[in-house]
Amino acid sequence: MDINKDISKEDILAIKDAIELLGGKWKFCILYHLNTYQTMRFKDLQEMSVGITPKVLSKQLQELEDNLLITRTVNNTKPVTVSYAPTKYAEEINPVINALLSFGSKHREKIKEK
Amino acid sequence: MDINKDISKEDILAIKDAIELLGGKWKFCILYHLNTYQTMRFKDLQEMSVGITPKVLSKQLQELEDNLLITRTVNNTKPVTVSYAPTKYAEEINPVINALLSFGSKHREKIKEK
DNA sequence: ATAGTCACTTTCCTAAAGGGAACCGATAGT
DNA sequence: ACTATCGGTTCCCTTTAGGAAAGTGACTAT
User: Ranges for the HTH hxlR-type domain (chains A, B) (predicted)?
Assistant: First the structure.
């Protein structure tokens, strides 16, 4: 019984960590876009993520990079462009994105019924 | 091409809706506990969700009920107790919880490495 | 010289989330 | 009369997320 309690405590910590990292208004959308296009510039991401401001986008990208989910590459172009791409490790996020997407679609229908 | 763009816009809306509903510090933990025990009283939930205050717990539960994910039942006991239980529909959340839990566990390991 | 592009940063602000502590009403036990 | 339990609510406060708008620096094109 105590064993099970410990396991569920670990589970709670894992869930809390995950949602602390991925929660918020933009992270999943950014990862979804990067997942789709594989590599995008700052401006691309800004245009795809309708409504985001450069300040906020910049912060989200930094946090994702800090957590090893994306890479940032400065290109030798003029004017400078910067490419963002998901890491191999970011594939671990895909099940979460897909589950969230699936639930979100169903839920939009469900709430429409009311 | 335009078709694909429309599909991805719908996807983004679905993801945004889902994270708007389930984001925040406590919702997934509450759903995880209810998923495990099936029916819990207010006080049980308060004790399991370490650190939560009654005000915040109350708000989370109301939002989950509004979204048809849990039911609230007042019991005929003394003093009054209130039971919360996941709805059948709440099963749709399980894949999200599991994916988040799985990623969270892996990520805790990953970050420990650094 | 001027205007434009890109990837930001800076400053200022507001709204929302969340926490602390106390309180409440109904009821029960001693 | 006093204390406790349960499921909250109320009030106040701090922290954080996020948005608006402007600016910056390196470079290019006209």
Answer: 13-112
